[in-house]
Write a structure and sequence with these properties.
By secondary structure, this protein is α+β, with helices and mostly antiparallel strands. It contains two helices and six strands; from the N terminus they run αβββαβββ. α1 packs across α2.
C-alpha cells in the first residue's frame, strides 16, 4: 500500500481552486499573498486510509485579504469529500480548527491559520 504526498496533492488542488500560490515552505522573497501548507500530523486509519492533518497558513499584506483567502481555502478543502485528485480518492474531510487570526510573531504580517484532516485512500501497487 502506498500513500500520496498529501501536501503536494492538496496544494495542487488549492492553487487551481483559489488562484493562490500554495507552498510548503515560506518563500525567501514573500509574495503579497500565499498559502503555506504544513502536515502537522495524522494517522493510518483502517489500514488503507492516510488521515493527513494539514494546517494552512494564509499570508497577505492586508488582514482582510488573509481572512478572505482563509475562507476560500476552507471552502476548497471542505469541498474535497468524494473527489479524486490525481488518482487518489478523498473519502472525508474534517475541520479541526476554523480560520483564526494569527499574525506572524516575527514580522507581524497578517496571517490566518486553519487545520483540517483529509482522509486519502492509499494506492495499491502490484507486488505490494
Amino acid at each position: 500500500m502506498g500513500f500520496a504526498n498529501a501536501q503536494g496533492l492538496i496544494n495542487a488542488h488549492l492553487s487551481e481552486a483559489t488562484g493562490l500560490r500554495c507552498v510548503t515552505t515560506i518563500p525567501t522573497t514573500r509574495p503579497e499573498r500565499f498559502v503555506r501548507t504544513i502536515r502537522t500530523g495524522g494517522y493510518l486509519a483502517n489500514g488503507v486510509t492516510d488521515v493527513a492533518r494539514l494546517t494552512f497558513e494564509c499570508w497577505a499584506e492586508k488582514k482582510v485579504d488573509a481572512q478572505s483567502d482563509a475562507q476560500h481555502v476552507r471552502a476548497a478543502v471542505l469541498a474535497l469529500r468524494g473527489v479524486t485528485l490525481s488518482g487518489v480518492k478523498v473519502h472525508r474531510v474534517e475541520e479541526i480548527s476554523a480560520p483564526m487570526d494569527s499574525p506572524d510573531p516575527d514580522s507581524s504580517t497578517p496571517r490566518y491559520v486553519l487545520t483540517h484532516e483529509v482522509y486519502l485512500r492509499g494506492t495499491y501497487r502490484k507486488g505490494q
